[in-house]
Amino acid sequence: MSADAKFRLQRVLELREQAERARAVALAQAEQGAQAARDERDALQAARERQAEALAQPGEAATSVGMLRHARFVLEALDVRIVGAEGVVTTAESLVRRAQDELRAAYTAKRALELLKEKHVASARQAERTADQARMDDIALTRFHQQGDDRPTPT
């Protein structure tokens, strides 16, 4: 492609590519944060289940009222923390959805410029082919006319 056929929006395309990469990184970070929040919530739920199972299993030693109250307090505290962890998970997942939307939008914007560039390149190539064909036609016509002068006239 010739120098005069340079894609004028190349810098904008490069900026869009950078924006898309930044959005991809943000999405990966959001997904990591969401996974960490889900892991924390799951760990709290597992701890609550273990505590509830330990309370439900009859032990050999007699369980005092104070121990039962303490176990109930621990279960309630875990329930509160689980609810809080659910809120964190919900927030993290909404951040992931937002990051996905932003990545989709960045990809669409970049793709639109890529399509423009592809059309520009195709147009420039076609213009080059047309110019080359015109030059070849001129050369052929020039040779034809030069040979025509040297040919004997038919009698």
Describe the 3D structure.
Helix 1 (10-56) runs antiparallel to helix 2 (65-150). The chain has helices spanning 10-56, 65-150. Helix content is 86%, strand content 0%. It is mostly helical. It contains two helices and no strands. The mean pLDDT is 89.
In DSSP terms (H or I, runs of 4 or more residues), the helix count works out at 2
Shape, per Cα inertia axes: rod-shaped
Order of helices and strands: HH
| Total strand segments | 0
Instruction: Assign the structural class, choosing from mainly alpha, mainly beta, alpha/beta, alpha+beta, or little secondary structure.
Output: mainly alpha
Give average pLDDT, whole number. Answer: 89
Q: List low-confidence stretches.
A: none
- Rounded to the nearest angstrom, the radius of gyration is 37 Å
The description of the largest β-sheet is: none
